[in-house]
Amino acid sequence: MNIYLLILILSVIVASFAQILLKKSAAQTYSSPIREYLNVYVICGYGMMFLSMFITVMAYRGLDFSNVPVVESLGYVVVMLLSYLFFKEKITRKKLLGMAVILCGIFVYYR
Questions:
Q1: Which residues are CB-contacts of 70 (< 8 A; sequence separation ≥ 6)?
Q2: Cβ atoms of 55 and 14 closer than 8 Å
Q3: How would you write the pLDDT of the chain (111 residues) with one tens digit per residue?
Q4: Least enclosed by CB within 10 Å: which of 17, 19, 87, 90?
Q5: Quick one: residue 100, left, alpha or beta (phi over 0 = left, psi -120 to 50 = alpha)?
């Protein structure tokens, strides 16, 4: 497997964790609007998004762009699994159907 493809997968995972941090921040109430945007979860979440963007640009150096949309779409699957693990969100039939459509699209793309 191409090392740049692994770097892109790492970028997707980092971005997924960043989304979880931002979601955790959004679920809380804050005493002021400034604290709503300047708290540990938001700062770390946006920092991780920046890191993910930087890693993605590094991965683009060695990839042809045919694989990029497929790998990026895996982020939806990772976020769903992380939401289940960290927030105990239910994985409904609609979510499973959506994930199945994404995975089928990936399968069709690679065939």
A1: 105, 106, 109, 110
A2: yes
A3: 689 999 999 999 999 999 999 999 999 999 998 999 899 999 999 999 999 999 999 999 888 877 788 788 889 889 999 999 999 999 999 999 998 998 888 888 777
A4: 90
A5: alpha
